[in-house]
Amino acid sequence: MIATALLPDPSSPLSRDSAAQAFADILDARTSEEAVADFLLRLAERGETSIEIAEAARAMRARLIPIAAPAGAIDVCGTGGDGQHTLNVSTAVSLVVAACGVPVAKHGNRAASSKAGAADTLEMLGLDMERAGALAQATLADIGICFLFAGNHHPAMKRITPIRRRIGRRTIFNLMGPLSNPAHVTRQLIGIARPDYAPVYAEALEQLGSTAALVVSGEEGLDEISGAGPTRVVAIGAVAMADRIVPEDAGVARHPTLAIRGGDPAYNAAALRRLLLGERGAYRDAVLLNAAAALVLAGRDAALPDAAARAGEALDSGAANRLLDRWIAYS
């Protein structure tokens, strides 16, 4: 195919129609790779607007391979790129929340900026990624959790991935993962590593029709609720939460972020299994804190301390560990 479409000048904010057309042209390979790279870099340098983020997400949603999800399904996901290299908090939270009876359609990928992404860690624990992907809709319906490996559901991104690697820095596509869940969940806990950008990201979610969402950013630049100190929170839709929370709000202790520093997939997998078997400490408290917010988002509890207690019971009873074993056996 000969690339013939011209991308708009991104030096000024794009209109909704202009943004929609630009991302359609990019994902459908109607533009040259050089033009795409230039467009994405200039957009990032200027700072993406909520309209541009929303329209990029709509373009990705229109081209993904979907699955059906039960009512009330949620996703817990971060945009990545925070540079903190922590253990897999959102993956652990997904297991805990699903063990509490909330269906979780976990959208994720292999590591990009960290040493071990969700897919890498789950695979090390014994989850067959190929079968888990093929059976995602079935496991979500039967046991309440699935892993939606991004590469299986976003064929349009095959063209974009090498362009992003060549650029070598953050672009709007770093923000797209949580906004393009193949299960079309409308309730999400999303971590973003830029506290000042959380309101813009939340505006994009509102434009995309989210029922309820919490956009969270640890004030040290963490793409999850921080176990070390304050977190910026922007709530939209049918969920209420203070715009700034600390670990004590959920009844858990503070720990320095370094205390949940991760490693390679084997290291992170071993830590996750120990957590599920009842190990206490900084990792558990970080997971309880984030799981509490997810349970509030899902409507299971109205207050963070009650939700954290529910999450703790899912760990202490072995329910979350048994769920992981069932998932591995299923796949």
TrEMBL record:
Co-factor binding comment? Binds 2 magnesium ions per monomer.
What EC class is this? transferase
Q: Provide the cofactor list for this protein.
A: Mg(2+)
Q: What is any Pfam family matched here? A: Glycos_trans_3N
Q: Where is the Glycosyl transferase family domain?
A: 73-320
GO annotations of cellular component type: cytosol
Residues in the signal sequence? none
> What Gene3D superfamilies does UniProt report for this protein, alphabetically?
Nucleoside phosphorylase/phosphoribosyltransferase catalytic domain, Transferase, Pyrimidine Nucleoside Phosphorylase, Chain C
Q: Taking every annotated instance into account, which residue ranges of this chain make up the domain Glycosyl transferase family 3 N-terminal?
A: 13-63
State where Mg(2+) 1 binds. S90, E224
Q: Which positions are annotated as binding 5-phospho-alpha-D-ribose 1-diphosphate?
A: 78, 81-82, 86, 88-91, 106-114, 118
Domain of life the protein comes from? Bacteria
Q: What's the Enzyme Commission number for this chain?
A: 2.4.2.18
Pathway membership of this protein?
Answer: Amino-acid biosynthesis; L-tryptophan biosynthesis; L-tryptophan from chorismate: step 2/5
Which biological processes are named by the entry's GO terms?
L-tryptophan biosynthetic process
Q: Which keywords has UniProt assigned to this entry?
A: Amino-acid biosynthesis, Aromatic amino acid biosynthesis, Glycosyltransferase, Magnesium, Metal-binding, Transferase, Tryptophan biosynthesis
Q: Where does Mg(2+) 2 bind?
A: D223, E224
Name the residues that bind anthranilate 1: G78, N109
Query: Where along this sequence does the record place binding of anthranilate 2?
Result: R164
Catalyzed reactions: N-(5-phospho-beta-D-ribosyl)anthranilate + diphosphate = 5-phospho-alpha-D-ribose 1-diphosphate + anthranilate
Q: How does it assemble?
A: Homodimer.
HAMAP family registered for this protein in UniProt = TrpD
Instruction: Say which family it is in.
Output: In the C-terminal section; belongs to the anthranilate phosphoribosyltransferase family.
| Protein name (record) | Anthranilate phosphoribosyltransferase
Gene name, please?
A: trpD
